[in-house]
Amino acid sequence: IEDGKPLGICGSGIVDLLAEMFLNGWVDFSGELKENVSKHIIKVDNQLAVEYASKDESENHESLIFIQSDINQFLKTKSAAYTMVAFLLGEVGLTLDDLDKFYAVGAFGTHLNLESAVTIGMYPDLDRNKFNCPGNTSLEGAYKLLTNRTLLSSVDDIANRVNYIGLENAK
């Protein structure tokens, strides 16, 4: 941040790190680190890890590492999100090809590198013009409602048209 030395890694940084490691052959398709393909892949407590900033490069003069179990946890979360999208599309009878737009909302989606997200399978490999990342829309909506009370009737109308699909019963 602001050309300072790193202290850690954020969520969008993890996506970029994994994408670059995949593109450079440091991890395989399943997210497993490959031993001996880079001097940055090290062992920590009997587990492979990537040192993404050395002691000399980091603000606190400690190695910054991302271990295999961190990668595995991220991939579980990514898989759950992708499965949710596939399930919801199936529930309404659509495929990814049927979509005119793919919205990636929230603060996380705003800072995410689209190509990195597609590379690791977090986002589908669609025509890039179909992607729309409008930012933190829930916060923006709350602000609009708080500053313009006449919008309350619109909120009620929208709430009455919402079709709830419970993922807890997904097959």
Provide tags for this entry:
6 helices, three-stranded antiparallel beta sheet, 14% strand, two-stranded parallel sheet
Largest sheet: 3 strands, antiparallel
Helix content: 40-55%
Fraction in beta strands = 5-15%
How many separate helices? 6
* Count of strand segments: 5
Outline of this structure?
With 171 residues, this protein is α+β, with helices and mostly antiparallel strands. It has helices at 11-23, 68-91, 107-111, 114-119, 137-147, 152-161; strands at 41-44, 47-53, 64-67, 102-105, 131-135.
What would you note in describing this structure?
The chain has 6 helices and 5 strands. With 171 residues, the chain is an alpha+beta fold. It has a 3-stranded antiparallel sheet with strand order 1-2-3. The radius of gyration is 20 Å and the shape is globular. The mean pLDDT is 91.
